[in-house]
Amino acid sequence: MIIITGQTATGKTKLALELAEKYKGELVNFDSRQIYKYLDIITGKDLPAEKVWLYDIVTPDQYFSSFDFVERVKPIINDIKKRGKTPILVGGTYLYLKHLLYGFDDNQTPPNFPLREKLNNKSVMELQEILKKLSLQSFNRLNNSDVNNPRRLIRRIEVELNPQISQIRPIIPISPISQFIGLKYKDKSRLRQVIEKRVEERLKNGAIEEVENILKMGYKPTDPGLKTIGYQQIIKFLNKQLTLEKAVEDWVNKEVQYAKRQLTFMKKDENIKWKDV
Fold first, then answer.
1. Which residues of the chain have pLDDT under 50?
2. What is the distance between the alpha carbons of residues 80 and 88, in angstroms, rounded to a whole number?
3. Domain range 188-259, its CATH number among 2.30.30.210, 3.30.420.40, 1.10.287.890, 3.30.390.30
4. For the chain, what are the domain ranges?
5. What angle do CA 42, 46, 52 make, to 5 degrees?
């Protein structure tokens, strides 16, 4: 198996195609934005959906977690290997990759959306009391920030209410990896320049029209697929909350910040062999 990850806008897909040619490979996407249907221009889908596994698999109103990704990708990897081909995983959502290769940190409890909806109206104090009744030990393990964070409290309650928590094991063992490549920018100023150019190209290619069409289809700005960089800024422009200039500026800034966070997160993985671009 070959894995290509790294910062946004570093040419991961281009490298993946070169290696696919060399090693009889098939591309498997692990970019959390490209798994969504209709999100094409802003997410930078460079290839037709039929050329890449896990492009366009859910609609924008669907939540798709790293747990969902691991469940979907395991049979695909096995299928590619059985046919004598090389799985080439390419993308920048390291959380997906981390959970695929190394399992889940403390649990693999899938999201319980009806429960979350029920708990969303509870106060922090009420959530604390619910968790204490379920597991005082779990409550005491939370730090001061988590104890006062409703989202974290809801997640812990969700975990404690999962009857299979003690039986869950990592979903997929570490597969033999022949190459584990990370691409990053040597020059930080070049990162911004490349992102600015890419945003400009995507606007020329119809980014605004793409968002308009998705909203016309009935999808909402609060849907999981649209709560992402690029889409949020264009939506604010369409709603007259931002000028186009300010929307573009915010889009670029958010992409740069995201790229920096990606690198910070990925650098903790000592198995990645880094290449500067």
1. 165-173
2. 10
3. 1.10.287.890
4. 2-106+173-184+267-275, 113-167, 188-259
5. 115
Q: Which of 15, 44, 7 is nearest to 190 (CA)?
A: 7
Q: What is the pLDDT of residue 165?
A: 47
For 202-237, how does the pLDDT look when each residue is reduced to its tens digit (9 = 90+)? 999 999 999 999 999 999 999 999 999 999 999 999
Rg (CA), the chain: 20
Angle formed by the axes of helices 244-266 and 188-204, to 10°?
A: 130
Give the CA distances from residue 154 to residues 59, 69, 139, 223, 251, in Å, rounded to whole numbers and listed in that order: 25, 22, 11, 20, 30
Q: CB count, 10 Å around CB of 206?
A: 14
Copy the structure tokens of residue 147. Answer: 């104890």
pLDDT score, position 188: 84
pLDDT given at position 104: 58
User: What pTM was computed for the model?
Assistant: 0.76
Sorted by sequence, the CB contacts under 8 Å of residue 229 that are 6+ apart come out as 251, 254, 255, 258
What CATH architecture is 2-106+173-184+267-275? 3-Layer(aba) Sandwich (3.40)
In this structure, what token pair is assigned to residue 104?
Answer: 């889940």
